[in-house]
Automatic annotation (TrEMBL):
CDD domains recorded: Macro_OAADPr_deacetylase
Domain Macro: from-to ranges: 1-173
Organism domain of life: Bacteria
Protein name: O-acetyl-ADP-ribose deacetylase (Regulator of RNase III)
InterPro entries linked to this entry: Macro_dom, Macro_dom-like
Organism the protein comes from: Mucilaginibacter oryzae
Amino acid sequence: MQPNIELIQGDITQVEADAIVNAANTSLMGGGGVDGAIHRAGGPAILDDCRKIVARQGGCKTGEAVITTGGKLPARYVIHTVGPVYNSGKPKELELLRSAYLNSLKLAAENGVRTIAFPNISTGIYRFPKDKAAEIAVSTVKEFLIDNKIVEKVIFVCFDDENYGLYKQLLHN
Ligand code: AR6
């Protein structure tokens, strides 16, 4: 395991980090999965911030990221990113998943975030194969941590057993 990468299995809304990442959609208006869980646990302040962002820039494009308050969550911020919907594994889909991780990390660093927790973006409702998604997530984070001086720790939060097993293998090698 890399010293600055942690792996846990559980509910990301309970994680104590400076920021947690939400697997949102382009509307930023909430949804199911981890997005629903974050808005429920964090309360209406998160949606209020999302509405302001929508008024300013009209949502969030796939592969990009925006930041809001964490509301009632233990985390100070929520970074909302939009992963790609998986269709056929075109290079563009893989690149967009990498961008979702990378742009979340860049936005975290810009906001002085030292610890950040990620869910397994796109691997639920958006049907990205979990093994491919885990490889992209781990390689993107490792690469980012080499050069960056602000973000000190990245926590991968896996909800299901399959993802947890995949990350365990990848991170222990
Ligand atoms: N904590 C951590 N991980 C979770 C939690 C939780 N509380 N709940 C689910 N997961 P998904 P996507 C895992 O579907 O595929 C929403 O409707 C889950 O097991 O939440 O990027 C958005 O609004 C899975 O591994 O996100 C979008 O419309 C992972 O989170 C769409 O879903 C991602 O699953 C985004 O789809």
